[in-house]
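User: Can you predict the 3D structure of O-antigen ligase family protein? Sequence below.
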Amino acid sequence: MPDSLFKRAFIVYICLTLIEYGLLISGNSLLKFYGYAITFGWLFLGRNKMPNAKESKEIIFFAIYLILAMISLLWSDDVATGSYYLLSMANMIVLILVASTLSWNKRDLNVLLFAFQLSATIFSIFLIIKGQLYHGFSRSTLVVNGLEQDPNNLSAMLVIPTLISLWRILNKQYITLLNRKYIVINYLFLGSCILAMLMLSSRGGLFGLICGSLFLLFFHNRFAQKNKIRSNKLYIITSIAIVCTILFFFIPHLDQETLKRLSFQRIREDKGSDRLLIWNIAFQQFLTAPLFGIGIGSFQGITKVGVHNQFIIVGVESGIVGFILFATSLIILFIKSFKSKTSLLPALLVGTFVVIFFLDAYNKKYFWNGILLSIIILTMEKNSRRSNNQLIHS
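Assistant: Sure. Here are the predicted structure tokens for O-antigen ligase family protein:
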């Protein structure tokens, strides 16, 4: 099986993450088994070359953190939940490892980004048309097999493809259809995702999108000069104008309760949907076992609620040691992103990190998609440098 087939498999995988909640059999995700198939295919066909340890420190720290979390099952109060989280993380870490060994190039990345944009747009339009009220109130969501999906998770999934559309607009990257190039399609992709996110009314998702977008708008010039791409302020102004137009025409049609939910006054009143209260409980649990934590899955088992903050839950359940390992892997990846020639890379990490500050993400694709895409972009740039060096010395 050539690299190209594995790369196509990853492109399909990332697009399917948008509808993972609907790909279930007996409560098990089919996407998980698809991930297993990619991994076993990679091993069986002898593609299992390992990446350079010095170039993949973030993966190594993720793996060490996973081992520590696995050991913490020994004292976990909810082994079933902890095991579920561990299997999900192990699957994603191995997939990230596999992706880092493939020969990604710029064309592959363009196909991947376009496919993710298109999938997110179809998903957004479906939600706009078929969305139902969450718990019978103002926020929109999707109902699958009689079960309401958490609008916070749905919104978080749209952050990265929305940032991709904005980035492609800023870089004047056209979409080619029938041998003709169109940039307006990127505006369609951008607008549909923003509309869907407004209907989902997730404050964490919107805040993550705003932070990632601001990074793109303010730091785009520095990266554009690296890539020798001529910065054009017109595209920035146009993007802002389109977003403002969407807000101007759409916000008056939003339910008043939705608008109140997005207001600063409401955030102060409900303490971020009681997150501050939950974080205080989490801190008390952390103090009972600060070094190695209370065990993965324990907080859910003890309190019957989530922490709604991936950084805090790692610290509570894996202790200071686990938090250092987890945070170090993210910091290494973030530092690498600033050395990248692609401004999208640090922007999508900024958006992802903000989102997981308000949501638990052990097994959530809105977190792992950000890590996986980052590894793919970094691998593409590494492959490009190697090719250039070979040409110079040939």
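The CA atoms of residues 96 and 372 lie 6 Å apart. Strands lie at 24-25, 28-29, 132-133, 140-141, 143-144, 147-148, 175-177, 180-182.
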